[in-house]
Amino acid sequence: MFARISLPFASLGSILPSRTTSAASPRKREDNWVDGLRGVASFVVVTGHICTAFVPFLHNPTAREGQGPLFFQLPILRLVVGGRGAVAIFFIITGFVNSLNPIKNARSNNTSVALVNLARSTFTRSGRLVMPTSVAVCIAWFLAQLGAFHMASRVDASWIRLQAHPPDPTWGQALFKLFRALTLFWHSGPGEYDGTHWTLVYFLQGSFRVYLALLAMMLLKTGYWRLITAFLYIWCWSTGDYIVGINIFAGVALAQLQVDLGSRATNLLPKPVPSLIILVGLFVWSFPQTNPHWAYWSRTMRDALLLVIPEKTDISRYWVSIGTSILMVGIFFSRNAQRVLTNPIFNFLGRVSFPVYLLHNTLMRTLLVWMAYWRAAATTPMTDAQGNLIQLPKPGGMTFVFILPIFYAILYSVAYAWTIYVDPLCAKAVDRMKRLMFKEEEQPQTEKPVPLTAVVA
């Protein structure tokens, strides 16, 4: 039994360079530190949602107004609830990854190659986002029909309780809602069976905005690439597009730096400077989600930013976007930070980051709830004398010390299994659709050379 449980973690050795496998290993990406950062971001998303469910007061900068902060409310340490910044990192990476190769080709004047590859990636990347998401939605839908979220509907953690979808009254209505969740969700959202999937709609929209911007800039000179990207960033900033716009175009700007500087970037600045930039980014990312006026440091940040953002916008989203952009700039110029993020452990976290994001909320509403509340559910009646539902009280902190490592182990084991069994099937389905729908590229015919003997004066 223990051998089976440890199997996914033993597989970490498979990503070491010295390991030989029977199958051909995929070509290593040049900027593998991005994968490591993606893995860290997905881990922060999970911890943030767990803390939001069970210790939501960590979103405040202090325990109460006028009091001092708790340990995990201090700047940088409070990033255990930094899920918003982790989502911003995902958007920055989306802009970076989607634009890196087109920018390389454009810089090399391979415009036709860039446009062809852009058309291909628009199709394949979109399919590889939509298909796994649809599978995860079907799993959550099926569990909801089985009543697997029943205990979650009774817990005192409101973040979990509000997402505990009950079984639909009839199978006909359930199938209709499933169809709606697989189609109209991509237009209006949020996900009915998994509320955390709301960001995936914005990832798809953000990707297409990057593709459109790349198409518009493909024939520009290098200096105008930077100018137009800066204009798009400022435009998104001034229009309140703080979730998608300012982050994806920060990623596009970072991709241009990568193409222009390459490996020289880690040698341009003195060693302490990138570390200082990273610390500044982490501090700015620490801006609290709620009640920033309770602490002097966050109140000062709030008052400073109110001068340069549109009215009636979420100031915390702006600050975490700025902080994560600064963080990625620091990592970009830091050889040591990139070396850490290219560690096999972080590469593993990056490879399973998407299934972790897709599945963590479903496992929280089932596995984590069952482990945390089973004792209270066994001893607490469903309703009181007036027929009101009795909420299950959360267990003490020591309970989470024991159950959270088990939960994370199972979550990452399931995510690893997803990458083995589900992701390849989705990739094959997308490739099959591409072969079916794409027309073959016609090679330009070259004229036969005229024999020299035919040329006469």
TrEMBL record:
Transmembrane region(s): 39-58, 70-97, 129-149, 200-220, 232-255, 275-297, 318-337, 357-376, 397-418
Naturally occurring in which organism (per UniProt): Blastomyces parvus
Acyltransferase domain sequence ranges: 32-408
What the entry lists under InterPro entries is as follows:
Acyl_transf_3_dom, Acyltransferase_3
Q: What GO molecular function terms would the record report? A: acyltransferase activity, transferring groups other than amino-acyl groups
Question: Carries keyword Signal?
Answer: no
What PANTHER family does the annotation carry? Answer: ACETYLTRANSFERASE, ACYLTRANSFERASE 3 DOMAIN-CONTAINING PROTEIN
Q: Which UniProt keywords apply?
A: Membrane, Transmembrane, Transmembrane helix
Q: What is the recorded name of this protein?
A: Acyltransferase 3 domain-containing protein
